[in-house]
Design goal:
CATH architecture: Alpha-Beta Barrel
Number of strands: 13
Number of domains: 1
CATH superfamily: Aldolase class I
Radius of gyration: 19 Å
Helix content: 25-40%
Distance between the termini: 35 Å
Number of helices: 11
Strand order of the largest sheet: 3-4-7-8-9-10-12-13
Strand content: 15-25%
Structural class: alpha/beta
Length: 344
């Protein structure tokens, strides 16, 4: 009941400033022990990727790009946390303003452009964190690295984060880094993922520990493109897929304030497209690897929808911004119900 009041105050502030103010406040509350009083999300353990998740509702990458707030966010009840996207070198991202709310659609458009402090900064934060749950690290390429050399950046980040992550996500689907989505084409995708699988095998031997990596894909794919990517994933034995990132489509927000801003659209408008990709991907993969569903989850029903489409876990981002921490428990209940219905 209290979150709408907080949201009303935050939505009077510039979105990027509100983002940092909220996270800084959460970190302050966590350090003082105040978040221990937070209502707990019931344990709902699930094993996947060789990992044990406390519950099936995670935080999507993008909210905590540098791993500055891991402990505070974990205290809210997420079953797993994904940080990033991180790049080899620090970069400022695109010019401000670059985040735009569309409240009437429950949506956000961002064109941040992988703004982050670089992978070394993120690793230092992970080393300091006390969190002992499942931690994913999302990796990308620097904006000025040519697409034909993108594998160099991904392999560099893979090397740096390998010993600090429970799983690693390869982000090839942000619309805010020029040329990045071209890596989703079958030929480019095969080259990139083959290089990463080769390095993953070397690192597993070196560290004595296998860290799975997943690929994050876009919602703006045709069914033929999804099928082609699934063939690559199966051929290379990729560990899993996160579906989906933000969309470049604007049909759902035409005529709304900020609806024509350039960038990736997230929130309720991407729900249907994301679920459609998950369903097609699940059918194409035929159970060979797990899918984490993300896109437009704002309540129990939208979380359950992703499970029915073929996802095993879900992640929140924009729904968390609009609905606040209570959406974590609501999504967990929706997933539990979907698990039960799928088991019948």
């Amino acid at each position: 009941m209290w979150y709408p009041l907080v949201r009303s105050a935050l939505f009077r502030i510039d979105p990027e400033r509100a983002h940092h103010l909220t996270l800084d406040s959460l970190a302050w509350a966590e350090r003082l022990g105040l978040l221990r009083l937070w209502p707990k999300v019931p344990e709902q353990p699930i094993e996947m990727l060789g990992l044990k998740f406390r519950n099936p509702v995670g935080l999507s990458a993008g909210l905590d790009k540098n791993g500055d707030y891991i402990d505070a966010l974990a205290a809210l009840g997420f079953g797993f946390i994904e940080i990033g996207t991180t790049t080899p070198r620090p970069q400022p991202g695109n010019p401000k303003p670059r985040i735009f709310r569309i409240p009437q659609a429950g949506a956000v458009i961002n064109r941040l452009g992988f703004n982050n402090e670089g992978v070394d900064h993120l690793v230092r934060n992970v080393e300091r964190a006390r969190y002992d749950g499942v931690l994913g690290i999302n990796i990308g390429k620097n904006f000025d690295t040519p697409v034909e050399h993108a594998a160099d950046d991904y392999v560099y980040c893979l090397d740096r984060v390998y010993d600090h992550a429970d799983y690693i996500t390869v982000n090839i689907s942000s619309p805010n880094t020029q040329g990045l989505r071209s890596l989703q084409g079958e030929e480019a995708l095969t080259r990139l993922l083959a290089a990463l699988k080769e390095r993953q095998a070397q690192l597993a031997t070196q560290h004595g520990r296998y860290v799975p990596f997943l690929v994050k894909i876009a919602p703006d794919l045709t069914l033929e493109e999804v099928d082609g990517m699934a063939k690559v994933f199966k051929a290379l034995a990729i560990d899993g897929v996160i579906a989906t990132n933000t969309t470049i489509a604007r049909d759902a927000v035409v005529g709304m304030p900020n609806g024509d801003e350039v960038g990736g659209l997230s929130g309720r408008p991407v729900r249907e497209a994301s679920t459609k990709v998950i369903k097609a991907l699940s059918e194409a993969l035929d159970g060979t690897m797990p899918i984490i569903g993300v896109g437009g989850i704002s309540d129990a029903a939208s979380a359950a929808e992703k499970i029915h489409a073929g996802a095993s876990l879900v992640q929140l981002y924009t729904g968390f911004i609009f609905e606040g921490p209570p959406v974590i428990g609501a999504a967990a209940r929706g997933v539990a119900q979907a698990y039960a219905e799928r088991a019948k």
